[in-house]
Specification:
The termini are far apart. The protein contains one helix and four strands, in the order E-E-E-E-H. The chain has one domain (about 5-90). The chain is α+β, with helices and mostly antiparallel strands. The radius of gyration is 13 Å and the shape is globular. It is about 20% helix and about 35% strand. A hairpin with a 5-residue loop joins strand 3 and strand 4 (about 45-50). It has a four-stranded antiparallel β-sheet, with helices on one face.
């Protein structure tokens, strides 16, 4: 069975509205939390994602820094662009 990340909640951690830079904390259905960095200009684009070290990685099961979430950037970016970005900025 392959891993499929599913976003359950997103909160805006910080932003620089003038430059169009945003940082979001993404909570996934399996309890994993990630930090995602976005650039708004010319359009919303995820520039980096990293897993917060609160739970082991759901892919490789390591409890230290890994780059597994980079492989799921397209899936996470699609979910973020559909609904989560606008909800997070409005808060």
């Amino acid at each position: 069975m392959s891993y499929r990340p599913n976003i359950t909640n997103v909160t805006k951690a910080s932003s620089n509205d003038k430059e169009g830079l945003y940082e979001f904390i993404i909570k996934l259905a399996d309890g994993t939390e990630c930090r995602a960095f976005y650039n708004r200009y010319p359009e919303w684009k995820m520039t980096n994602i990293s897993r917060l070290l609160k739970t082991p990685c759901p892919v490789c099961r390591k409890d230290f820094i890994c780059k597994c979430m980079d492989a799921f950037t397209p899936e996470l970016e699609e979910q973020m662009s559909n609904t989560w970005i606008e909800k997070s900025i409005a808060e």
